[in-house]
Amino acid sequence: MKFRFKAFGLHVTASTCLFLVALGALYFGWYRWPGWYLTGAMNIVLMMAGIDVVLGPLLTFIIANPNKPRRVLARDVAIIATVQLVAMGYGLTILWQGRPLYYTFSTRFLEMVQASDLSPEQVALGRKLNPDFAPHWYSLPRWVYAPLPNDPKLVEKIIQGTIGGGDDVIQMPRYFRPWSEGVAELHKELRPVAKMTELGVRDKQIVAARMLELGVTPDEPVTLPMMGRAKPLVGVVDPPTGQVRAILRVD
């Protein structure tokens, strides 16, 4: 039994360290708040942890028989480790493809844009027409203004395409502009928490309490909903600068 626990301890230590290093690189590079929450990444992480940190070492504990020939034991552990690496690679690939690249303001909301939201065609156009805002593999998340173009025909085309399941303007890096250029339009959309139709009554109460903790009165028109793949968040904006002061959960 002592041999089994030793094998289990070594395996769980190695698996945990590898898991934390890989996950930490993604988290501190791309998934820091609010990316982790808005992408719903926890579901993938729990799957990875279940296989790589729990199941793999547990299987090693089961097969670690001191009477088993070392060559056979090494083969069995190698098989387990291979399955773990495949599972980790699968999970990391999903997280990489879904990493947040932009937090945008376009019209009524703050919205997250993930790498998987951008088609190769839109990325290529962005690099050609607006290289300062086009994404690269090493690009980190940034806040941008994503206005509709000035040409009414292009606006109509984008709107019709979006309705039909095509790309929205927040998925078109060629139109992205510095955040500061959208502050005037951002001010027009700010509203009190009570007027956020995207939130339920209980949600509004929670946000109001958290705003008071920040020293902000809930009836001030300084908030916008922030949309992603999870429950909406609430962005609290500093009106003079247009910068997002805080992003609050509603649960």
Written description of the protein model:
This protein is an alpha/beta fold. Helix content is 50%, strand content 14%. It folds into three domains: 2-97, no CATH class; 100-180, no CATH class; 190-251, no CATH class. A seven-stranded mixed sheet has the order 4-3-1-2-5-6-7. A hairpin with a 5-residue loop joins strand 5 and strand 6. Helix 1 (2-31) runs antiparallel to helix 3 (42-63), helix 1 (2-31) runs parallel beside helix 4 and helix 3 runs antiparallel to helix 4 (70-97). It is elongated and about 75 Å long.
Summarize the topology.
Elements: H1 2-31, H2 35-38, H3 42-63, H4 70-97, E1 100-105, E2 110-114, H5 120-129, E3 142-145, H6 152-163, E4 177-178, H7 183-189, H8 201-213, E5 223-227, E6 233-238, E7 243-248
Parallel strand pairs: 1-3, 2-5
Antiparallel strand pairs: 1-2, 3-4, 5-6, 6-7
Helix pairs in contact: 1-3, 1-4, 3-4
